[in-house]
Task: inverse folding
């Protein structure tokens, strides 16, 4: 998918160099190469947008810009980008494509590598390839990863230059800006602890989003609507209010012919919603309804019967909802709501950017709704001004984009826990004896089934088969031994999935739509299947085994707030079977299994009891 220009060139930032460059006769030309190839790395990083779930975006370019730079050198010899969470790092792909041409070359990274904790695949690839210099666009914004890869590369003797720190030049400002833009969702998430949210609406020239009757089809042009589909595909979720469901009956699909499909979120305090709605069809895309605790229990049961997930809040407001989806690991959310909910979201400070499509139409009407409801402002001096506004003509429409909140300032270097601990050994990274893990970019993210660690497991004939991740293997096992030939087709499709996310999406979708293709004993064997896969993973990779052993004395909790079987749930109500299995494996490795394990019959009985409860 092409990079959307309005999403890539409109974020405010400031370059605050901390160290001036030493005089160098070829520095201006070298800076020109640096700017050119860093911008290319950022372009590469954006390539997976719309086809995988939003995740940190990494791109890598390897070019020959060393001593030959002053003589007009500057040839790209290798490129790569992160396709999805749990796939090969961009740096490894670029090194493999460049081969022997890496020796003495320069690697350009839009962002500092962020491997799974204790997994230095990207760093090792660069070091082992013989690269002599690395140029980094921005440091990693997540505190537990910030600066780690840079220090590791420098400790191996490589020259590492960070834009705005080691390189100061007007030439590199646009390059630095492109690096900030391509990972804007991660930057906002890290700074504000909520997903990056942008409000989208289409309005007439006189500021109306619908006629007085409520009709809104169509304000914007077909070209603008196609662009909105792309925006949806770049988001974890699309959010609307109850009024939009009642009035428009939307589908909120990306419609880009496959790849990532954002979840649909409905915010409704009273659950005064229609029983028949396109959003209740979850055969292709899940729907989540956020409501106030205790609202219309009968309708909640009805939604549950449709496999629509309902999440209750003590008081329903945009801030609490966004903090909840932050906990679910979401990076980017698109708001396509009406004026009332849009105003509330702005008041609660969770909207970071606005995309307004203005159509050359006038509809009038005193009661016709506007895109943003009451904000309590009575003077023009109180108006919220957008930052870094951009304009783009989309067919007959004008797209106006701007930021409500500026990009977080990354100039101050946040010390890592290791750096802080060296000064103050009373500092602890944990407030309790619990270690939470979820996304692969989180601390202990390598415990996730989505981590990029292939395993080899025996099939029904005892032959060892390679699987790209634990998630690939687990999802495929749902269809093993089923006589229907379509089950084998499902298994093969999962095995060839390009990422753990895609494997999970395929497996869950088939299980939901074609339950007859799932093996009959699945609920009884799935825990054993998961445990065997985990045991293989932590046996193959010594650094993972060491990391697991380092957690001795801590409770491990898979921090999924919505998976009540494998995860710990939102309020600790989940069964946390993934965390349990990891602790069981840890005990086995430590030789403590007699103290914590049960015999096989007891384990089987416990599984059956849990299944019956569910």
Result:
């Amino acid at each position: 998918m092409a990079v959307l220009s309005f999403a890539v060139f409109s974020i405010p930032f400031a370059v605050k160099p901390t160290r001036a460059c030493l005089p160098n006769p070829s520095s201006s030309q070298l800076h020109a190469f640096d700017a050119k190839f860093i911008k290319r790395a950022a372009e590469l990083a954006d390539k997976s947008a719309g086809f995988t779930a939003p995740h940190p975006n990494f791109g890598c370019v390897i070019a020959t810009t060393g001593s030959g730079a002053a003589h007009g050198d500057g040839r790209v010899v290798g490129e790569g980008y992160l396709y999805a969470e749990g796939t090969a790092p961009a740096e490894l792909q670029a090194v493999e494509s460049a081969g022997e041409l890496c020796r003495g070359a320069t690697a350009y990274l839009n962002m500092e590598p962020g491997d799974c904790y204790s997994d230095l695949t990207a760093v090792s690839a660069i070091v082992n390839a013989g690269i002599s210099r690395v140029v980094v666009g921005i440091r990693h914004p997540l505190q537990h990863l910030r600066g780690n890869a840079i220090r590791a590369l420098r400790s191996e003797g490589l020259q590492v230059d960070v834009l705005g720190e080691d390189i100061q030049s007007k030439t590199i400002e646009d390059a630095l800006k492109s690096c900030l833009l391509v990972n804007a969702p991660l930057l906002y998430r890290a700074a504000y602890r909520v997903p990056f949210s942008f409000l989208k609406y289409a309005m007439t020239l006189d500021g109306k989003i619908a006629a007085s009757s409520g009709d809104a089809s169509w304000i914007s042009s077909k070209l603008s609507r196609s662009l909105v589909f792309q925006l949806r595909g770049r988001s974890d979720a699309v959010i609307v209010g109850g009024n939009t469901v009642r009035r428009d009956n939307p589908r909120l699909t990306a419609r880009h012919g496959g790849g990532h499909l954002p979840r649909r979120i409905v915010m409704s305090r009273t659950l005064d919603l229609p029983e028949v709605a396109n959003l209740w069809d979850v055969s292709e895309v899940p729907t989540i309804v956020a409501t106030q605790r205790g609202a219309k229990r009968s309708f909640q049961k009805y939604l549950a019967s449709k496999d629509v997930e309902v999440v209750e809040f003590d008081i329903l407001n945009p801030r609490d909802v966004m903090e909840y989806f932050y906990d679910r690991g979401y990076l980017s959310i698109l708001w396509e709501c009406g004026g009332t909910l849009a105003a509330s979201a702005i008041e609660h400070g969770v909207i970071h950017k606005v995309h307004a499509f203005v159509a050359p139409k006038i509809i009038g009407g005193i009661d016709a709704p506007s895109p943003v409801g009451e904000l309590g402002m009575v003077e023009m001096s109180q108006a919220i001004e957008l930052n870094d506004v951009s304009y783009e003509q989309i067919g007959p429409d004008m797209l106006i984009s701007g930021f409500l909140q500026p990009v977080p300032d990354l100039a101050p270097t946040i010390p890592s826990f290791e750096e802080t601990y060296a000064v103050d050994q009373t500092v602890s990274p944990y407030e309790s004896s619990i270690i939470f893990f979820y996304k692969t970019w989180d601390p202990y993210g390598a415990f996730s089934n989505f981590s990029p660690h292939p395993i080899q497991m025996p099939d029904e004939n005892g032959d060892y088969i390679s699987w790209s991740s634990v998630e690939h293997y687990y999802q495929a096992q749902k269809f093993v031994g089923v006589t229907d030939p379509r089950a084998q087709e499902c298994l093969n499709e999962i095995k060839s999935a390009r990422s753990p996310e895609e494997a999970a999406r395929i497996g869950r979708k088939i299980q939901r739509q074609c339950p007859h293709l799932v093996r009959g004993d699945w609920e009884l064997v799935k825990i054993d299947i998961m445990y065997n896969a985990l045991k293989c993973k932590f046996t193959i990779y010594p650094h993972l085994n060491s990391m697991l052993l380092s957690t001795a004395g801590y409770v491990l909790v898979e921090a999924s707030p919505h998976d009540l079987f494998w995860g710990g749930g939102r309020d600790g109500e989940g069964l946390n079977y993934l965390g349990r299995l990891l602790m069981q494996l840890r005990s086995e490795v430590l030789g403590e299994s007699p103290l914590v394990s049960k015999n096989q019959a007891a384990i089987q009985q416990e599984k059956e009891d849990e299944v019956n409860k569910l």
